[in-house]
Amino acid sequence: MIDNRPLEQVDPEMAALIRKDLERQNTHLHLIASENFASRAVMQATGSVFTNKYAEGYPGRRYYEGCEVIDEMEELANARVRHLFDAEYVNVQAHSGAQANMGVYFGLIELGDTVMGMSLDQGGHLTHGSHVNFSGMYYNFVSYGLDRETELIDMDEVRRIALESRPKILLAGYSAYSRHLDYEAFRSIADEVGAIFMVDAAHFIGLIAGKAYPNPVPIADIVTGTTHKAFRGARGGLIMAKEQFGKAIDKGVFPGAQGGSLYNQIAGKAVAFHEAAQPEFRVYAAQVVANAKAMAESFIDEGVRVVSGGTDNHLILADLRSVDPDLTGKHAASMLNELGITMNRNSIPFDPRPPFVTSGIRMGTPAITTQGMEEADCRTAAELISRAVHHYQDEAVLADVKREVAALASKFTPYESDFSGHV
Ligand SMILES: *Cc1c(COP(=O)(O)O)cnc(C)c1O
Fold it and tell me: 219, 247, 276: which is the final residue of a domain?
């Protein structure tokens, strides 16, 4: 028989681990650019009985019985996305951002076809052709990068490479680039070479939902995204497209890339779509960008070089060579985590160090904005980071920074100390 006692009683070991990570989440400053804090409402949906239902196929076309409510729920999720982004076709079934991209590739192109995307070491994503990822194994990826001087995407170069390689898909989007994308220029290059124009908005789709970053949906053929980064929802993927691509993408996702989808996650995504349609979400999205700008300016004032000289979104890439040529991203990120500031090492454009070491750190403001931080707090955070990296060998300075970080974080705890989101 089902044992419905609370987790604490059924599995105290796991309950303790959850409490331990709640404590970590409540006491650090969270600057991992792809992370956020989901609301209780989102967690209640992901922890709901929708976790029990098998549903393969799409609303109205299922392989299992009993999908009446699931169909209604998936239609609700789809309608919310259509409304938020002005989208024609929507698919909310992808388990993650990577599988959203997989579904698109599987649906629209043949194995071995050419796809053109941003190179991984200059800001692209694994699923944009890395040789250790399915994308690079199954497809012929060619890449574009940044201009060495401006550290911006060079659209003349994109056009030159596209004319030369004639990709089936021209892909814009990034995991580590802090500027707007020129959707119109990508569109016209895609049209010139007969490519499908796809935007992987995984990182910034939440900002688009909050009207703080330009919306590619009306311009691009396909837009993919994640629902757990700046979007602040349940973990998962999302695909939007012009209607004409819908049937093929549906097949690419299921049965191409996945079996039955994760309906508890889809319920959590749908709650996030509802939250993103509220006026407060626009305030949040605008604050994410204002906070990133405030941090970038502080770094520049403190003598820490910011890649491309600033930011238009939630991301800041800092070049640690401007602080000390011997300081690596790996060392800095691990030291900062010890001090209570969590982020990741990241290659900077044309980084002479390998990806496991790097010369940079990547920071993002979605999570700290959800925690309630505003510009002045972000300037304080940037000053603390800057002090730590400038004095990374001075234990006394680092001990001071650690105390000040704890004090700052304690003012912005995302959850109550006994929070358990699933009830
Ligand atoms: C995060 C990200 C993905 C993948 O998302 P997962 O949910 O981690 O699979 C895909 N593309 C880009 C650009 C991303 O930043």
Answer: 276
